[in-house]
Amino acid sequence: MTDEEIQDVPRQHYTEPEKAEIFDKEFMPHINSMHNFAYRLTFDEDDANDLVQDTYLKAFRFIDSFEKGTNAKAWLFRILKNSFINDYRKKSKEPAKVDYQDVETYYNSDDVDRQITPDLRVESLQDMIGDEISNALNSLDVDFRTVIILCDLEGFKYDEMAKILDIPIGTVRSRLHRARNLLKEKLSDYANKMGYKNT
């Protein structure tokens, strides 16, 4: 949910102890799922942590918009998803940033005179032991990746996904079907190498 959408929801007027109880008992149990979702969206540990922190800050700030006893996980996922999209849009409009402190540190270090050549044996070994499924999932467009994560990894139902993503159920179904087909295509070569035959 965007800040505006959260503010439009009827408010509950919880007491401070009730807010703390909701936060601890209904929101905090989902922190690992939230972090996994954030990491799969951002591919960066620091960005994922920031996104989860931002989500929980918003959840506490707008806790009066949450109806106790409803699906807290779906509510939190929707906040996280919208925070990610808003942050992604902001970053895509910003020019690339260079940390000149890092550049200066590098040029003042002993490494500047050493020629850096990649060790091809290490790189090829990393490719061999890499998680093919995770790599295939991460290579999907964010819209397709998100529906797979929500449905197949987090176990949300179609109606819950529709609320989280703010799209009709029919769009959820078609996007999930397309996402699974794309994932299947990306994994077919790997499956053949591992001895599985396409049927």
Describe the fold and architecture.
α8 runs antiparallel to α11 (169-193), α9 (142-153) crosses α11 (169-193) and α10 packs across α11 (169-193). The chain has helices at residues 3-8, 16-27, 31-42, 45-61, 72-93, 100-107, 120-129, 132-138, 142-153, 158-165, 169-193. Helices cover 70% and strands 0% of the residues. It has two domains: 3-93, Orthogonal Bundle (Rna Polymerase Sigma Factor, Chain: A), CATH 1.10.1740.10; 120-193, Orthogonal Bundle (Arc Repressor Mutant, subunit A), CATH 1.10.10.10. The chain has eleven helices and no strands. Residues 111-130 have low confidence and may be disordered. It is elongated, with a radius of gyration of 21 Å. With 199 residues, the chain is an all-alpha fold.
Describe how the helices and strands are arranged.
Blueprint: H1 3-8, H2 16-27, H3 31-42, H4 45-61, H5 72-93, H6 100-107, H7 120-129, H8 132-138, H9 142-153, H10 158-165, H11 169-193
Helix pairs in contact: 3-4, 3-5, 4-5, 5-10, 8-11, 9-11, 10-11
Task: Give a quick summary of the entry.
The chain is an all-alpha fold and 199 residues long. It has helices at 3-8, 16-27, 31-42, 45-61, 72-93, 100-107, 120-129, 132-138, 142-153, 158-165, 169-193.
